[in-house]
């Protein structure tokens, strides 16, 4: 794509200090967007990576389970650059257990971070976007926003909710220059997942390629990971003029998972 198609825009990406969020933030920065990073852990390294792409960057450590901290983050972005033009709701956590054994506090935390946070950021971003008659809301759902897996009740419920929120937001902005879409990845090769592959290979005494196929084999027919960079390119497309009438989609990038 043409370089710097997003120059002058501000993108806020939640959960962007690593993994998918960082990959999307980098892709948007490569197109010239200024970036507000958010997330736990080290942020100096990711900020330096973004700044090296020639854009301005800032960081806000809002806890995405708390509406008041989300409001403070959105206000921070407004003070820095006037408002948020591109909102990427990516923050998420996971816990695995059967429904009857699922800890109530983990359920509440997953719904708050994976679903409610996207409502709070969206409601606060939309007035500015509507005023400018241009904006992009990109919700990072999951293949689990379209299909289910056992032991993941809260995550699946939240991601299905994200797909629903995406559709409603798209309908409410359908006659404006604001769009809202969801990305639904399958297995994504993040550092955390790579550790799982390495551990499986070590435990079974097999190669990384064989361990990867074992991990992917049950769900993902392509037997290959999606990368954060690929998801970033899809986010860039959603921000492009070519996607101005792409509204309310749940775009799966899952190697054929949901085609089965």
Summarize the structure.
The protein is built from eight helices and seven strands; from the N terminus they run βαβαβαβαβαβαααβ. With 260 residues, it is an alpha/beta fold.
Highlighted features:
7-stranded parallel sheet; Rossmann fold; 2 domains; alpha/beta; 260 residues
The largest β sheet comes out as: 7 strands, parallel
CATH architecture of the largest domain: 3-Layer(aba) Sandwich
Uncertain runs with pLDDT below 50, 5 residues or more? none
| Name of the CATH class of the largest domain | Alpha Beta
Q: If you compute it from the alpha carbons, what radius of gyration comes out, rounded to the nearest whole angstrom?
A: 18 Å
Q: Which structural category fits the helices and strands? A: alpha/beta
What is the tally of beta strands? 7
Number of helices: 8
Strand content: 5-15%
What is the CA-CA span between the terminal residues?
A: 32 Å
Q: Would you give the CATH topology of the largest domain?
A: Rossmann fold
Shape: globular
Return the string of H and E elements.
EHEHEHEHEHEHHHE
Average pLDDT confidence is 96
Strand order in space, largest sheet: 3-2-1-4-5-6-7
* Range of helix content: 40-55%
Number of structurally distinct domains: 2
CATH H-tier superfamily of the largest domain: NAD(P)-binding Rossmann-like Domain
Structure characterization notes:
The chain has 260 residues and is an alpha/beta fold. The protein has helices at residues 19-30, 44-51, 67-81, 104-132, 153-172, 191-204, 208-217, 228-238; strands spanning 10-13, 34-37, 57-59, 86-89, 135-140, 178-185, 250-253. It folds into two domains: 10-187 and 227-253, Rossmann fold (3-Layer(aba) Sandwich), CATH 3.40.50; 189-225. The chain is 46% helix and 13% strand.
